[in-house]
């Protein structure tokens, strides 16, 4: 009888995306074929503690010992101390292959300011913006509508559109409560369209059909991301020229950041072409999240998507 692959599915996290990460990890663990995989669920608590699959508290050393018993890890911790390369670094030190991007790509993509610099260096347009800190935020003067966001938070936490000068201070305070650095960007008028890039074990990449986000209020913030009010159109209705431009920009960004596994690359589609918004190296991963929806539209159902991620991780370790 063929030995099942032992997969550590890691969820939770010590950040504001803890609950979202728990949902992603639970969905993945449930979707992995029990005939092929033996799943070991590990959870990182909001205080940084680790728990085993029976929800018993364990120390980091014990967690690493459990990881040593696995063949591969599926880390699904979104946001800081997870997606930002922290968890990838731990798995590298533990010597365990894992699905998804490594330390450098995770850290760079999580930093929206650095991502902008990389994109600009390879000719991908981004929204004009400035970087502020707690020490410099008071020097910024509102002159036109902007979007204020933490540099390194996820799930659109702390993101606000500011249409009047009186709204600026509260928006900056909300963003600075989540990050020491804040990005203030011009509002880009265009359609919000996401693409997902997936690496296969043979080195080829798949770009899933684009997904358009339609939001009544115009801003895809944390509430609209999870309250069901946003409409996802996949495949997005796009002119052929726009589709090709988006796919080229998504692949170029994925490669420039050094991503592995799957990454979601978010754009605004404007009259002048694609404008990069952000890159997620550990995107939401429930069956109804954007990336699984996109690959389902490509004929790759959720369980098969997980298979591809695990096969790519194991191939990279061989």
TrEMBL record:
Keywords: ATP-binding, Cell shape, Cell wall biogenesis/degradation, Cytoplasm, Ligase, Magnesium, Manganese, Metal-binding, Nucleotide-binding, Peptidoglycan synthesis. Residues 116-311 form the ATP-grasp domain. One of its GO terms (biological process) is peptidoglycan biosynthetic process. Its cofactor is Mn(2+); Mg(2+). Mg(2+) 1 binds at residues 266, 278. The active site is at 17, 155, 289. It is an enzyme of class 6 (ligase). Pathway: Cell wall biogenesis; peptidoglycan biosynthesis. It comes from the Bacteria. InterPro entries: ATP-grasp (IPR011761), ATP_grasp_subdomain_1 (IPR013815), D-Ala_lig_Van_CS (IPR000291), D_ala_D_ala (IPR005905), Dala_Dala_lig_C (IPR011095), Dala_Dala_lig_N (IPR011127), PreATP-grasp_dom_sf (IPR016185). Its EC number is 6.3.2.4. GO terms for cellular component: cytosol. It is found in: Cytoplasm. Binds 2 magnesium or manganese ions per subunit. It catalyses: 2 D-alanine + ATP = D-alanyl-D-alanine + ADP + phosphate + H(+). One of its GO terms (molecular function) is metal ion binding. Mg(2+) 2 binds at residues 278, 280. NCBIfam families: D_ala_D_alaTIGR, PRK01372.1. Belongs to the D-alanine--D-alanine ligase family. Cell wall formation. HAMAP family: Dala_Dala_lig (MF_00047). This is D-alanine--D-alanine ligase. The gene is ddl_1.
